[in-house]
Amino acid sequence: MDSLSSNWIDAHAHLTDIRIEKELPEIVACAARAGISRFVLGGVDPLEWEKQKRVAQKFPGTFLHSFGLHPWWISRATESEISKGLESLRRELSNEGADRGIAIGETGLDFHSNFSEAVRPVQEAAFRSHLRLAREFGRPLVLHVVRAHERAIAILREEKRDALTSGARAWTGIIHSFSGDLETARAYLDLGLTPSISAPVLTRGRGSAFEKMRETMVTLGATEFVIETDAPDQPPAGESGLNSPLNLLRIADEVAKLRGVTRETILNSSRDTVKRIFKIP
Ligand SMILES: [Zn+2]
What we know:
Blueprint: H1 3-6, E1 8-13, H2 24-33, E2 36-41, H3 46-58, E3 63-64, E4 66-67, H4 71-76, H5 79-94, E5 103-110, H6 120-137, E6 141-146, H7 149-165, E7 173-175, H8 182-190, E8 193-197, H9 200-203, H10 207-219, E9 226-227, H11 247-259, H12 263-277
Parallel strand pairs: 1-2, 2-3, 4-5, 5-6, 6-7, 7-8, 8-9
Helix pairs in contact: 5-6, 6-7, 11-12
The structure holds zinc ion.
Zinc ion (ZN) binds near residues 12, 42, 106, 144 and 176.
């Protein structure tokens, strides 16, 4: 395959993960041979942002930085850690150097039962802070929303209304690992946020959740979604071990099958949409 002309992009991955540190050169080389040459990283916390920058030096032009305080980190952090984290984020966004963040995130809400309900207001406050920073600095967002779409959309609408009345620009971005129904996808798109499709599309073979996702995937316009792996997290259900960026090709195959187009059509249009959203040259 002519991998130089493909230059596909994984819209969301965590290649700074310590579990793949040793294999990373091979993982990156292997993905490049398959035509996947760039990765938008998901930010987790200030220490991880520094790691993104260190790792990126070893693979020039491969990693696109996103800096944010992940809802999981927020759920475990103290009040003072969160306010220091937000200060660091503001400093990071003022950096216009080569290692600048192209996006703000991950941010959002995670109402999974792993977290006590008591942390929900803390997550919401941090989410709003990220949204305001995105507006202030004009950066796209990377959203992580689990079992909380209704609440996240309500907050996005409130913040957008405030933004528009103050004359500020609204945001763009992606809603990562989206597997919801068409109505939810449309609500995010109306708010400037593009669904990013990951491994669930491979493994939801039947049932109502699959039917909803299928409807979403066949109805959205070609530029209304992107694809990602979230590697090394989220291996396809039932598969052991860590997730590989090569699964981007499988996700593209599945989406292509649902839409009746080729794998290359999906990979090319996802790449172009990622470049537009994140203003990647
Ligand atoms: Zn992530």
